[in-house]
Every structure is written in C-alpha cells, then in structure tokens.
Write a structure and sequence with these properties.
Length: 454
C-alpha cells in the first residue's frame, strides 16, 4: 500500500474533492450491501419464502450489533480525520490503536450478550414459529462473526480518515463477489439451507477483515512519526467516545425502532414479512449508500475543521447535495419503474400478498429519497464538526415518528399505514437537520473563496 493514497481533503475545489473521495465510498457500500442482499436473494430463490422471511426477520436484530460497529468506525474516523488534517500524526496513530483495543473489549461483551439474549429478542418481536428455528440459527452464526464485523468497519474508517476511499472499495468488491458465490455453493451445492447463507457471510467477512487490518498497519507504518507512539490513551478514548457513543446510541435506537416496527409487521403474517424483507433490503441499499456518502462528508468536514478552514465546510454542503441528488435520481426512477421486478427478484413464486406489500413499500417510500438524502448530507457535516446533540435530536425525531406512526397507522389502514411512517419521519427530521446545519460556525461565511487553498 502506498502512502500516496492518503488524501488531504483540505485542498482543491470542494465539489471535485468530494466526487473523487465519495464515489469509491458509494461503490464500497453497494458491495457491502451485496452481503445482505445475497443472503436474502439466495434464501428466497433457492430455499423458499419462509427462509427469506427468517433472514429478513433476523436482519433487524443484526442491525443492533452493526450499530456498535458503525459507532466505533465513525468515532475513530472523525478523530483520526481531525488529527490528520492538523498534521498531528503521532496522536493520529494513538487514536487508531486506542480504538482497536477498546473495540475489541466492546465486541467481546456484545458477543456474550448475543449468545444469551438473541432468542429472547426473537420472541419479543413475535417471530412466527414456522421461521423461528431458522432465524435463531442465522443469528447464532452471525454473532460468531462479530469480531470480523467490528475490525473491518474500523479499518474502513481509518482509510476514509486518511482520505483513501479506494482501498476499502477494492476489498469489498472482492469479498462481496466471493460471498455471492459462496452463498450459492453452500445452499445449492452443499444443501445447508439458511446455515449455508450465514456461514458464507462469516467466511468472506473474515477474509476481508484480515486483509484490511494488514493493509491498515502497513499504511500507518508508512507515515513517519517522531518518538514512540502511545498504544492506548484514556484521554484519546474520551475524545473518540464523544463522537462514537452518540453515533452508537443513534444507530442502536434506530435498530430498536426497526425491531418494534418489525414486530408490528410480523403481526401481519409471513406474506407481508416476506414482501417487507425484499423491499427493505432495496431500501437499505439506498439509505446505507447515502449514509456512507454522509460519512464521507464527516471526514471532509473533520479534516477542514482540524485545519481551521470553515468556508470549505459550507461549500461542501452544496457540493454534497448536488452529488447525492445525481446519484439519487436514477435509483428513484429504477424503484418506481421496476418495483414488481425487483421484489420478485428476491422471491421465487411469491404469494400475492408478499408481492403487493413489497411493491407498495417502494412506491410510497422511493420518492422521498430526495428529501432524506439532504438530511444525511447535513448530518455528515454536523457529525464531522462534533455537533452531536443536534445530530441526535434530528435522528431521534425521525425514529420516534416512524415507530409511533407505524403502531398507530397499522391499526387504521394495515401495512400500507406502516409504510407511510417512513416519509413522514424523514421529512420532519430533514427540516431539523438542515436547520441545525445552517446555525453552524460556518454560517457567517456568506462568500466562499477557496482558490488560495486549491
């Protein structure tokens, strides 16, 4: 790995810098989502509708663990970005090592929690008996792979902090492609059922994690520092936690909210569960992609805040919205024009209820991607600037509205009411996020002049 892959995001035209940095991130998350899409696709096509419902049902619980991994990722990434932008390379390395040690301890605790409590969580969300065994089996194997999930996410956060979005893309492209092939081999060739889907993901994530960590340590070794680097710092951990803990709480509460929504959906029957499982995978492909672009905005903001160049943050917001809408437009058109085809892509011979519920979800939710994408750009800037209270306020507003409305509207108009909760929550939360962004420390910079930095 070449240290020249590290990129200084404090120089150059913001729009150009963001496109070059964020496009590989977008590609990376598409491949990352292929892990879950491949699991659902193979389960639905080669095993059956119940298997798809089981994988989708378990997925909502796996998001709790992913929330912690994501929080460690973003906490390390923002702290490292700020130190990299300020050219404090010794402290930057300490932040990386501190995150790896602390995350290892956290991961061990979560594995213990998962082994003890996941069966109870499946009962809490009203998992139907016909899919309970497969849901539990999938979760048990998933929990064994948590160390791979954690350390891989931290590695990608470090690369992003250094301005390198290309290396994670290469790793993910290779590992996710391998995962698809392994899914098919284990399910079709070895007839392992849902267990085959889970073990394929476990093996491919393990390989990608090991390679990513090797690459990270080689990259850090190529950055010269004077004197011995401290391996663990309580003070540094506190700085990382200021970003990581709110991010973990945000993602965890979202996951808990999704679990509550899943329990409401489960009461609608296996057909709606299967349709939702297919549609939510397609939805999460878009939302997670936009969130990753928002993370890119966090790295961009953190480096420029660390360097004290506030005008570039304001310029970055406009460039970020333009970029994300250009990516959003074809996805919205695809989902609206091909909703039926996309849902049937996941389910072999779907029931009328499964097909109708999945298609209706996409019709209701997809047009509002333009709105929520703006929220995620603003959230990225707020997080990169360390304005976590504002970031969490907007996020929890969205979550509370979606959960409450799903519960209320389900009783009034059925599953269509649950789907309507998404756009309502997104719209109100976007207004809050943009309002908080406009009150940031860069608000006084009415005229942007970045030529001297570019």
């Amino acid at each position: 790995m070449n240290k020249d892959l590290n990129k200084d995001l404090t120089v150059g035209k913001p729009e150009t810098v963001l496109w070059k940095f964020c496009l590989p991130l977008f590609g990376s998350i598409l491949f990352q989502q292929l892990y879950n899409i491949a699991d659902s696709l193979v389960a639905g096509k080669f095993i059956g509708e119940n298997a798809l419902a089981a994988v989708g049902n378990s997925y909502e619980i796996t998001l709790i663990f992913l929330a912690f991994a994501f929080g460690c990722n973003i906490g390390c990434s923002v702290a490292t970005s700020q130190l990299f932008g300020a050219k404090k390379y010794k402290d930057m390395k300490t932040s990386v090592y501190t995150t790896l040690i602390a995350s290892g301890v956290l991961c061990a605790l979560l594995m213990a929690f998962g082994m003890i409590c996941c069966a109870g969580l499946l009962r809490i969300i009203h998992t139907p008996e016909e899919i309970w065994a497969d849901s539990k089996l999938y979760l048990d194997i998933y929990i064994l792979g948590l160390p791979f999930l954690f350390f891989y996410n931290i590695a990608t956060g470090i690369f992003s902090a250094l301005g390198d979005s290309r290396t994670p893309f290469i790793f993910l492209a290779a590992s996710s492609t391998s995962n698809i092939l392994a899914d098919i081999l284990f399910v079709q060739g070895f007839h392992m059922g849902v267990a085959g889907v889970a073990w394929a993901t476990f093996l491919c994530q393990g390989v990608s994690c090991a390679l990513a960590l090797v690459a990270v340590f080689k990259r850090l070794a190529g950055i010269p520092t004077a004197g011995k680097v401290q391996a663990f710092s309580a003070g540094m951990l506190k700085k990382i936690a200021v970003i990581a803990v709110p991010s973990i709480l945000q993602q965890s509460f979202i996951s808990v909210g999704n679990i509550v929504i899943q329990s409401v959906i489960n009461d609608c029957g296996v057909g709606v569960m299967a349709g939702y499982s297919a549609a939510i995978k397609l939805n999460n492909l878009v939302i997670t992609s936009f969130t990753t672009l928002g993370n890119g905005m966090s790295n961009y903001t953190a480096q420029n805040m660390g360097a004290g160049i506030l005008p570039r943050v304001r310029a970055g917001f406009g460039a970020g919205v333009k970029m994300i809408w250009m990516i959003c437009a074809p996805l919205v058109l695809l989902y609206l024009a091909c909703a039926r085809l996309l849902v049937t892509f996941f389910i072999h011979d779907p029931s009328a209820l499964a097909l109708a519920s999945g298609v209706q979800f996409l019709y209701i939710v997809a047009p509002f991607y333009f709105i929520v994408s703006v929220k995620l750009v603003a959230d990225g800037i707020l997080r990169g600037a360390g304005r976590m209270k504002q970031f969490m306020a907007a996020t929890f507003t969205d979550l509370f509205l979606r959960v409450a409305l799903a519960e209320i509207l389900a009783g009034q108009v059925g599953y269509i009411g649950i789907w309507c909760a998404w756009p309502i929550g997104w719209t109100i939360a976007t207004a809050l996020s943009v309002g908080f962004y406009r009150k940031g420390p860069w608000r006084a910079q009415m005229k942007i002049s970045v030529e001297k930095n570019g």
